[in-house]
Design a protein that fits this description.
Blueprint: H1 5-24, H2 44-60, H3 67-83, H4 86-91, H5 96-118, H6 124-150, H7 152-158, H8 167-187, H9 191-210, H10 213-216, H11 221-253
Helix pairs in contact: 1-2, 1-11, 2-3, 3-5, 5-6, 5-11, 6-8, 7-8, 8-9, 9-11
Length: 254
């Protein structure tokens, strides 16, 4: 069983993120959660190491023989950055932005786990790991729904003003789409279609929101870092779609 384009998109996003981190040498914007480490001498070295891991993992995951190691590296570094949000969640548990940031990073861990399991010798353990990754991603989609719901006005502000029928319309619509995708993934009903539509929606976010951002404000790091972040989540959703597609193909052949 092999994944298709999802892991390649996921790896490309990791490479882009590593390159951006090295070029900008600005660590507070893309990885602001490292503030939880406090005042640590030369803590930027940790981010250089993380950027190197992103590059290694992003390149390795492209090759079938090294994909397992690439997925392990990317899953580990994304889990580290996800856990760095936990102190902020503990300090402000009622601020959903903290939870949302955690689950954005954790969605990448989920995608990496599925790739890792897929390129491990097929047995009950690897099948269980892939299933866990799938369910974890579904939980993250619930978080995407809640994050947009709680910050609906902010979500609407990201929608280009020229897109009809209006910014708030698409903020509400995409929130509903996230919710429907989450329900489908958990219930298993039309889950493959839902994962594909979710991937398409995330691609739309990239094309309409993040791709133009560096042209609008090239001096702001988030304009650049937002692209690989969205692309990585897109890759994770694509990995889920590939996983479901292959499961269906396997079931039909037996």
């Amino acid at each position: 069983m092999r994944l298709h384009l999802g892991r390649h998109v996921f790896g490309l996003a990791a490479i882009a993120f590593g390159v951006i981190a090295f070029v900008w040498r600005d660590f507070n914007s893309p990885w602001q959660q490292i503030r939880a480490l406090g005042i640590v001498p030369h803590r930027e070295i940790l981010v250089y190491i993380a950027a190197a891991i992103f590059l290694f993992g992003g390149i390795s995951i492209q090759c079938p023989k090294a994909a397992r190691f690439g997925a392990l590296a990317l899953g580990a570094v994304c889990l580290f950055f996800a856990l760095m949000w936990v102190p902020f969640i503990a300090a402000e548990p009622r601020t959903y932005d903290r939870w949302g940031n955690f689950f954005e990073q954790f969605s990448l861990v989920s995608g990496a786990l599925i790739v890792y399991a897929t390129f491990t010798a097929s047995n009950s353990k690897s099948l269980r790991l892939a299933r866990i990754g799938y369910l974890c991603f579904a939980i993250c989609v619930v978080s995407f729904t809640l994050e947009q719901l709680f910050y609906l006005s902010a979500t609407a502000s990201f929608v280009p003003k020229w897109v009809p029928p209006g910014q708030m319309f698409w903020a509400i619509a995409t929130t509903i789409f996230f919710a429907l995708a989450a329900i489908s993934l958990f219930s298993g009903r039309h889950a493959l279609l839902a994962s594909r539509l979710l991937t398409a929606m995330l691609i739309g976010f990239g094309l309409l929101v993040w791709l133009p951002a560096p042209f609008a404000d090239p001096h702001k790091l988030i304009s650049w870092a937002g692209n690989p972040q969205n692309l990585a989540i897109t890759g994770a959703a694509w990995i889920v779609a590939d996983y479901l597609s292959q499961n269906r193909a396997t079931a039909m052949s037996t």
